[in-house]
Amino acid sequence: MTDTALMTDRYELTMIDAAMRSGTAFRPSAFEVFARRLPGARRYGVVAGTGRFLERLAEFRFGDAELAFLREHEVVSPELLDWLAGYRFAGDIRGYAEGEAYFPGSPILVVEGSFAEAVVLETVALSVLNYDSAVANAATRMARAAKGRPVAEMGSRRASEESAIAAARAAYIAGFRATSNLAAGARWGIPTMGTAAHSFTLLHDSEAEAFQAQIDTLGVGTTLLVDTYDIEQGIRTAIEVAGPKLGGIRLDSGDLDEVAAEARALLDSLGATETRITVTSDLDEYAIAALQASPVDAYGVGTSVVTGSGAPAAGMVYKLVARQGDDGEWVGVGKRSEDKASRPGEKVAVRTLEGGIAVEETVLVTDDPHVLEQAATRGRALQVPLVERGEIQERWLGPAGVELARERHTASIDELPAEAHRLARGEPAIPTVFR
Amino acid sequence: MTDTALMTDRYELTMIDAAMRSGTAFRPSAFEVFARRLPGARRYGVVAGTGRFLERLAEFRFGDAELAFLREHEVVSPELLDWLAGYRFAGDIRGYAEGEAYFPGSPILVVEGSFAEAVVLETVALSVLNYDSAVANAATRMARAAKGRPVAEMGSRRASEESAIAAARAAYIAGFRATSNLAAGARWGIPTMGTAAHSFTLLHDSEAEAFQAQIDTLGVGTTLLVDTYDIEQGIRTAIEVAGPKLGGIRLDSGDLDEVAAEARALLDSLGATETRITVTSDLDEYAIAALQASPVDAYGVGTSVVTGSGAPAAGMVYKLVARQGDDGEWVGVGKRSEDKASRPGEKVAVRTLEGGIAVEETVLVTDDPHVLEQAATRGRALQVPLVERGEIQERWLGPAGVELARERHTASIDELPAEAHRLARGEPAIPTVFR
User: Fold this and answer.
1) What ipTM was predicted for this assembly?
2) What cellular component terms from Gene Ontology apply here (chains A, B) (predicted)?
3) Nearest-neighbour CA in chain B from A351: distance (Å)
């Protein structure tokens, strides 16, 4: 069952039901997705998941199975069931382009429609954006710490099976080069990689037989995993079997800094000076940074990237910021509770640049019809149209959307000041200013 | 695309390809899922995801779309494509019943089949078990810390959209009472809950109008969210509108200990002595334990449960532990690398009890044909048949399987010594002994 429309918290439907009764369900409304802070006291965040959210939106329909469930469990009234049966989002959505950097308070997504049609998207929008952005937030730091050496995502087994595919996509957008996950290749066009695990060596009667079988099948350019028994012997066997033109070796255990240096020296002494070294054991952005001076050619990252490296959810929220009253006047609205207050009013955002470097995230409340024109003069506009009168903009979807997001990510982080790339906890790289 | 068969790391297929060439691909083999340690230095773990894994296994087929992708990208040889087209798992799988407690080294799942048919399940098995168990590992502590007060899962928006459904299921197995996620209700029969968010209050011209609409629709037994503006005023308005028979109020901000006490006193003073208090702001097992003396009636937990409360992946691995040689003899195999060694040989496990209390996780290597009989005399057998000659045992599937897992969880943790329920980091509650 692809029950996207039930990827929804029950209270969204009970709210619509009650609002239909009070006559407020169809008040024109605006919801905003934003983050109160950057997780893990990082210096910037990366928006990811937008394309996936739009694909979920395209299939967000209450079909017979979904309606039957809601009817049988008396979740909502018969009137609401009728309305849900015809549900199609017909409003507007604009937001930060996927791959764009964001900061606390950035209006990442603005959903305009009736209260009913917009509130029902709350859970699915946040699920997608919070997970995918958590991965991208971690991946961007790892890719940057690798300083041009390629990083591959191989954490599928440490995330639930659908998250694994989303993680591969988000990591690729944020600068990774490839993934081990075949479904991510099939769905999103992401390059896939991988050769063999320890079980392959253990299956064979000797390490040499395993290596020979791999080379016979994948060619001498393949990467051999050399640490099943003893690394030094494994490398010697690898070169004996493959010759000095072996493509690469992989190291998946031990003190990688030390092990990589020894492996490099041994490979060189065996004439395998072009054989590349990939390391893959429990890496995160800090471990990658610490290996900067080591003779490592490529990294494979698993658990830490798919779990957001200590911040497994990006902490974005979906808040009603404005709605019309019965008099047709727009009213900015926001919670006043002490630790979770929200800022009323629909917003647009520009990144203010000086000499090509970002200096401020400028957020303007759109209570003035000319604010958009004013905004354009202040810097680079950050919101793009995603859905117009219910029509999803195609260019953000599928593999093409992923490539667009990857390009946006590169351009966006190149614009950030140098402090943005410090790994230590700290303040956002630029301030968010509400003007 | 429900491409379960591509929820697979590329190297699994390249290994089969190379093993077909070396003539080892169809050696009878046994893979084992186990965890080297308990994440977060907890006292026990909870197996979750088994039923979901079996449902994924049932649909694990390389169809036209999957084969076309593999062919176009030249991932594997034409011979392997032919084999994949006919792939059906025809082996045996036994394992810990879903909901069972586990410890370091527990042989949670044993997959027996040819190398090829078993290795290809590595990623999907680990993805499901690692995520679902991470959630259950967190949820069991929260449910226990709540000491009988009901706990509901409401973290869908903090997990990716399919993980959210799996999380609701795992939390329910581990003792939660309900979820906000409608899809979890539809797919797995889990009770759903939820009434209204702050946006519902903000949509209306006054808090009183919002409360009135909710009561008109959901009845006076509903739960009103009272902290949109001012909690004291919110509670007064709630009782004015609903009368003293109001079912409940929800508090989602502030110092919950203090706020709950003030709310209880105010409700009592207004005659609403039976009105229940639900709290829902950033709770985890420690916060729940700290609210033990507070007049709280129910908890709602979001981020921390769906992200494993600091341990977002359970750290289980899938290792080849035994395989036949060409002579038909079984050989126990294991990695020897220093930090990731694995213990060779197929295993069975029993929980050794004294006076009904667990004292040891006893793991026996099955190199002796009588070991299973011996095991039965030592304690409670932990592995149950899940798949027999390719046939998935129905009782673990669907909503019925979830209820069975929930019962197993209760029985299993009731058997653990009292130390098991300490929240502080420490050693596993019982030792794992290999005999």
Assistant:
1) 0.97
2) cytosol
3) 27
